[in-house]
Amino acid sequence: MPRLDIRRISLPTPFPVGAIHTYLILGDRPTLVDTGVASEASWDALGAGLREHGLTVRDLERVVLTHGHVDHYGQAARIRDESGAEIWAHARTAPLIASYPWSMPPVIAANVDFFRRNGAPPAVAERIGEFLAGAVELQRGVQVDHVVEHGARLPVCGERHLELFEVAGHYPGHLVLYDADSRELIGGDHLLDDGTTVPFLFLKDWSEGIRPRSLVLFLQSLDHLARLEVDRVHPGHGTFELAHRAWIERIRKHHARIRGRIRHHLEKAPATVWEIARRLYRSQLEAHTFLVFSEVVGNLDLLERDGDVECSTDDDGTFRYRIVGAEHRRPRPPVLRLDREGRWLEDDEEITHPGTIELLTRALARDADGGFFVSIGSERRAVKVEDAPYVVRRVEGEGAGWLLWLGAGLVEPLDPSTLAIGAENVLYALVRDGLRARFGRAAYYQLAEHIEEDGAGGFALRMPDGTRRALTLASEPS
């Protein structure tokens, strides 16, 4: 299969990261991936880059945004004004970029507060606020025309399409674009080969005490990326020369080393994030304060999750981390948990990346003692299942029977003889390898429409072909 015609157009930014790479996909509908900041220099460079390929801004029909950082979406609104191009973005990204820049003042205040409470000197925290305020001038809010979810498809040429995958950690709803035929990946800021790939702090809701654990989410997303066959990565900045699986392994080892260095530092004395950052990144802290903080906080999140460190609050509100001694270390909770609503959690942090959820759901199995586990590669991890290992999301008729949709692309035929009523009138059935599936509310009502009295004091299930199956509805699955 020939490669797609993907052309790089690099645009200037005022940030230390340097130029951003946007990508022009030439096909049935000229498509631009990412836009650059909203500045005249960036606009002129975009026009010049398009002219090199025989196009103008007015010829663009679609703009796909990998994520909502200013250098990736900043001039999307101006491009649409000029061309009428459709704007595509993930459902998590769309409301965020629609609200900029008027939503920025509380976000700026939240960032200043976070840096102060994590030990940064007031002048440094204020400088972070000034940096974010300056970025307001480089973006313009935009309404997304085509909101997508993980696994959406972008038609590019005839029946050829790109798959859009959500990868968490750098920004909510970050997308990568994947061509399975040519094994190419447009990676945005999720895959960068120059060491700048850092799961960013996202502090929009910090005033309410809510902060995503970005590095935890980022490392989860790498499981999905590792399953893809990739020969070439188109990065958002710099170059990308490594094989992507070698890059994933390098990233994992890098963060493991950082956690080791943080532990070594904390073994001497409790410390704030700022004190740890000064010790580990003294030469980079001045120019890359936000990046350094993001990396240190992310690895502290992992150490705290694993029970190796704990965070306390000083009298003045400053957060301080300390090592948890072996004699005081809390027992590690189950590595993975599947709650009664079918949500996957890792130490009470919900796993939201669709690719990771699919991987875990498909790998779920039961051991000889009746417990549950997932086995991925050489790693086996216990799973605490609160109710049933599967949740029926919807019910559809096909031929003479009913199909149960379990999520993660799993579809199982319903065996009516296994239907059972549990506590609180919850409906269950047996599915894969005789494991229980709990009917969600929507699926319950979908099936209940086809359950009717049989005239003899019992019940029957009406099948899609019009036949009826007697139901026993035991008190629990056998």
3D structure, described in words:
- It contains 12 helices and 29 strands.
- By secondary structure, the chain is of the alpha+beta class.
- The protein has 4 domains: 5-100 and 139-240, Ribonuclease Z/Hydroxyacylglutathione hydrolase-like (Metallo-beta-lactamase, Chain A), CATH 3.60.15; 251-323, Orthogonal Bundle (Arc Repressor Mutant, subunit A), CATH 1.10.10; 336-385, duf1285 like domain (duf1285 like fold); 390-471, duf1285 protein fold, CATH 2.30.270.
- The strands form 7 sheets. The protein has a 6-stranded mixed β-sheet, with helices on one face. It has a 6-stranded mixed β-sheet with strand order 16-15-14-19-18-17.
- A hairpin with a 5-residue loop joins strand 25 and strand 26.
- Helix 8 (244-266) crosses helix 10 (289-305).
- The longest helix is centred in the middle third of the chain and has 23 residues, at 244-266.
- It is globular.
- The chain starts with a strand and ends in a 7-residue tail after the last strand.
